[in-house]
Amino acid sequence: MIFGLLAWSSNLLLCGTTDTVPLTKYEFATLTTTKSIAMDKYDYMILDIIQTYKQEQQAHIRLAVLERNFWKRIEADTDLSVGQARIGERITNLYLDGMLQNKNGYTLTKKGREQLALAPWKQNELV
Questions:
Q1: What are the structural domains of the chain?
Q2: Which of 15, 36, 49, 102 would bridge with 4, disulfide CB 3.0–4.6 Å?
């Protein structure tokens, strides 16, 4: 859920409430909400490929290399289906969710690294 913000003089009024938050000059008020991001094994695989490449090569991964590694993993794993992969859509969604960034190649953001730590196979390693 996203809340609207209105700023009047030195107070910030939260829409839908009577609450105000005092503001000082040059301060910016932000209101963020957290949402649960539904990720499946394919999304986690993309994050893992990017992180593994970064650790091994000390560089950002290019799209062509990311796609090649993604398809190789799918072909090697009998539990994964090519029909459900849709890598372009998945990369776009991960980018829009703030999990990765593209600066002359893909790399994980802090949020992406935190989410990768919650991957199902990483949870099994901790137990």
A1: 1-33 (no CATH), 41-126 (1.10.10.10)
A2: 15
